[in-house]
Amino acid sequence: MTAPFGALAQVAVTFRDVPAAVAWYRDVLGLPLMFETNGMAFFAMGDVRLMVTAPSDSEFDHPASVLYFKVPDIEAAYAALASRGAAFEDKPHLVGKMGSTEIWMFFVRDPERHLIGITEERAGA
Predict the structure, then answer these.
(1) Taking CA 84 as the corner, what is the angle to CA 83 and CA 88, rounded to the nearest 5 degrees?
(2) CB-side exposure of 122: number of CA atoms within 13 Å?
């Protein structure tokens, strides 16, 4: 049975300090800022938008799920984020193999300590 809906369109992450989050996702992570409106900002993550917003009530005032971003070169991504002052949890490392593909990853934290995973899938040795 086919699901009656399409691809994921948008992810919302809540922040107490939206301007600081906007600056970090734009200037440190390097996501393209699409637009800002009414205390919200929208970034392009490939075909999916990231909405940065304040929590509308206490139900939504908590850390988000982990966002994972694919990169073509994990070492270059690590170096770029380091040059922009990212707060790292670890360094690029092999997390597993999926057939002949190696999965490499590292993690950073945004200004409100949300965890961001950076991952590269590369041909194994």
Answers:
(1) 85
(2) 15
* Average pLDDT, 10 consecutive residues per value, the chain (125 residues): 73 92 96 94 94 82 83 94 95 93 94 92 84
Domain 10-123 class?
alpha beta
Token code pair at residue 32: 């393209």
> pTM here?
0.83
**Residues with Cβ within 8 Å of residue 54, at least 6 apart in sequence:** 14, 15, 16, 18, 39
Tell me the three state secondary structure of residue 78: helix
For 1-66, give the DSSP string: ---SS-S--EEEEE-S-HHHHHHIIIIIS-PPEEEEETTEEEEEETTEEEEEE--SSGGG-SPPPP
Label residue 9 exposed, middle or buried (CB < 10 Å: 0-12, 13-18, 19+). Answer: exposed
